[in-house]
Amino acid sequence: MFEQFSSAFQHEGHLSRRLFLTYAASLSAVPLLGQTGGTPKKISFSSNPFSMGVASGDPDHKSVILWTRLGPKPLEPGGGMPNHPVEVRWEVATDDSFKKVVTSGKTIAASALGFSVHIEAKGLKPDHWYYYRFQSGDATSAIGRTRTMPTPDAKPEKLRFAVTSCQHWEQGLFTAYQQMKRDQPDLVFHLGDYIYEYAAGRGGNVRRHLGPEIETLEQYRLRYCQYRTDPDLQAMHATCPWFLTWDDHEVDNNYANNISEQQGVTPAQLLLRRANAYQAYYEMMPLRASSLPKGPNMQLYRKGNFGKLAELFVLDTRQYRSNQPNNDGRGPLNEDSLNPRNTLLGEEQRKWLFKSMESSTATWNILAQQVMMALVDRNMKGETASYSMDQWPGYAAERQKLLEHIRDHKISNAVVLTGDIHSNWANELRVDDLKADLPTVATEFVTTSLSSGGNGSSQAYDLSDRNPCNKFHNRERGYIMCDVTPKTYTADYKVINEVKKPGGITRSRAKFVVEAGKPIIHKA
Ligand code: FE
Ligand code: CA
Questions:
Q1: Relative to the alpha carbon of 391, which ligand is closest?
Q2: Within 10 A of 351 (CB to CB), how many other CB atoms are there?
Q3: 192 CA distance to ligand 1 centroid (A)?
Q4: pLDDT (tens digit, 9 = 90+) per residue, 21-45?
Q5: Ligand nearest to the CA of 165
Q6: How much is the pLDDT for 466?
Q7: Under 8 Å between Cβ of 89 and 106
Q8: Which domains does the chain have, with CATH numbers?
Q9: Which residues surround ligand 1, an ion (CB under 5 A)?
Q10: What is the model's pTM?
Q11: Which residues, 6+ apart, have CB-to-CB distance to 479 below 8 Å?
């Protein structure tokens, strides 16, 4: 993983015995569906309980998850909520004045899930836009806008979605979401580093995290609540449904399954921390009940589809991965990184992905995941190659298996979406990227960070001589806006000139197109 500041960070310590015992004592608080802790009481709020806005996600052709969270005091532990469950009503309409309500209901928000609400709005029409809102006591939430997918056998003419990742609160403002909203995507893919776990003041000075490095459930909750008070992030969530997945910073920098990058943290300690982090993640995101965590385990990889135009695979390359080879140092592709036992996906997810890709009949097969798949040598001078062991090069054998699978099973138009690296890349993928004479079998569009790293640089590293797979590279901040049709996939790299002060201007920096049937990246 490429984190500009990470070398400056040293962890202050590992999970204390106190924390271990606290977690053990709170295990009974790990939520069970339906176990909400009694009947709701009437409530009136002294300030807006919907301070973190609304969100929707994981749509299919007849349903979508609607999300909110009650917290009149979002920056205080407990969110300013009472010690009892609270009733929340919700409604979905075809108009934003809610004259034509198509479905509605009520549910209970309770402390076990941090007073979060996840509603599966069902029985909706395919390929339709809807409005939704929540009410509790005498308070009404902001209005969210969401949509369903076309039916699985539909042949839609176009799909527009945004790709974003890496939004460090302290290092930059989320201004680029303003332009993303104006771009009017159907969907957003967030590829991880939605929050950063670091202590206040350790990452930047644009604004400040609350509290120490986060480890407990309350600390993770508070960090998510702080991020979600951002008006641009809130507005983007209210604009369209999101598919979210995590990377490392939702738990701990560069963790791998149950292994911490910090010395002296045992797997058991990391799993306890992971359980806190995963629960807080589930609470904050518009995820289906199938993603409800069970202790330190959470099913986040999943698929969706936009008719026959696109099959969408959302992957999890953190929870099941083996430890980074070469002590996570950058280096050449040596025996350690080529070890066929190394895995980013884990066997179960890999089998699921391979099978799902084989049975897909979509024109475009889109893999939304975290770390760069192209074998990019990042050494700018000198002889020794420099590959990131936290990314696919550290898991080169599994990477090869995946690209061979795409080639051998003629998976239609595989496009890999990536975050993590805080810079823009467009790559053509081969079974072995070092062999330029091999045919390309897939393409990869890597989005830069939304804010992590502060204002970027318009000066790109010149790495293309060493890396025939790379067609574009840039180090500014921003996101990618993608337009998909039965004939073409267009990736528009949008960059913002300023994230350290308000008023940044987002513009198109470079635009690339891939024609269906030919995994070659052209300038649009
Ligand atoms: Fe990041
Ligand atoms: Ca990362």
A1: 2
A2: 11
A3: 7
A4: 444 444 444 444 444 456 677 789 9
A5: 1
A6: 84
A7: yes
A8: 54-147 (2.60.40.380), 159-523 (3.60.21.70)
A9: 166, 193, 452
A10: 0.93
A11: 162, 163, 164, 176, 180, 447, 448, 450, 494
